[in-house]
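Support request, please re-run this one:
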Amino acid sequence: MKYLTIPAVLFVAATTSLNGCAKLDGKVTVGGTLNSQGGAGKAVLTAHASRCDDVVTGQANYQDQTAIDWQDVGGVAFKAEVYDAGFCADEPVHPDGIGDTTKHCRQDVCTGGMYQVDFTYKSTNPTTPGEGAGFACMMDTGQGVSSGFGATGILRTMEIESGPYQGYRNAGTMSGNVQVSTCPSGDSK
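Re-run finished. Output below.
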């Protein structure tokens, strides 16, 4: 009997690893600081993004002047345009159940209850010109320092996948705010 149980558990684990979270309609507004990626200073992030009736809009600004590997050139600094976003569903769904892969959160990093933003950016640092792409996952802790997390929001990760800042990553608690909200009535499904 134990032999039959083990393959069943392995099958369930394999099936679960194929599941991801669906991106749902919602909005996020971010503004604040977090620790620099390995540097001595602070990183500053301001952003707003929304997915309402599957229409995605948004922009972001980011600066980390003391980022390791970029501190000698003035740090990481860019303006971004959001091209995809969404609130990650709490319940995992099989990717075939959604169909459109742009409606999937990155299951390896952005889990249920987080907001995912995908963006293209243009460097605003003249010593590192260029354009690229990246993504961020964040969470609204709801009640700030009394939330138990000691912060008003959490940047689970921001990862730059291409361009002059390829390989840059940062994560941490925000001293500003991450606020996730629903779309205005009539705009959400």
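Confidence is low (pLDDT under 50) at residues 1-19. Residues 32 and 93 are 33 Å apart (CA to CA).
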